[in-house]
Amino acid sequence: MTAGLKQDDNITTLPYADQAGSLRRVFVRDMVVNTSIGVYDFEKDAPQRVRINLDLSVVEGEGPKNDELQNVLCYEELVNGVRAICATGHVNLVETLSEKIAEMCLTDRRVRKVCVRVEKLDVFDDVAAVGVEIERFNLAR
After folding, report:
1. pTM for the whole structure
2. What is the per-residue pLDDT across 60-87, written as a single tens digit (0 to 9) for each?
3. From residue 8, how far is each of 5, 11, 12, 132 by CA, in Å?
4. Interatomic CA distance for residues 71 and 60, integer angstroms
């Protein structure tokens, strides 16, 4: 079995952070943006608040990082990427928005795994949030 992988009979998972596999965990927590999302006509009339969380497993690479930004995954780029995706126009489903965000995260070759959670915050008066969480992998890179 490869270092850092956890395996049972049917599933192999990659941990978010693992010294043996040289993985670092990078995250964005509780980002709230207004975006046009929803399948109903009334949802298309005005933006809705969504909360977005990202967890990424990132390969650390060889040698020291020298305390320089270009040697690590920049979370500012992640945040700006999410903002840009949310500003591109209407999407019907939180699943679609989640996939677009995951795809953006995986364009960096160092990212091995991303977990994206998208929650609509104002759907029900008696529910804090509804949404979806997905995991996507970049093991081939």
Report:
1. 0.84
2. 776 566 778 777 889 999 999 999 999 9
3. 10, 6, 7, 25
4. 9
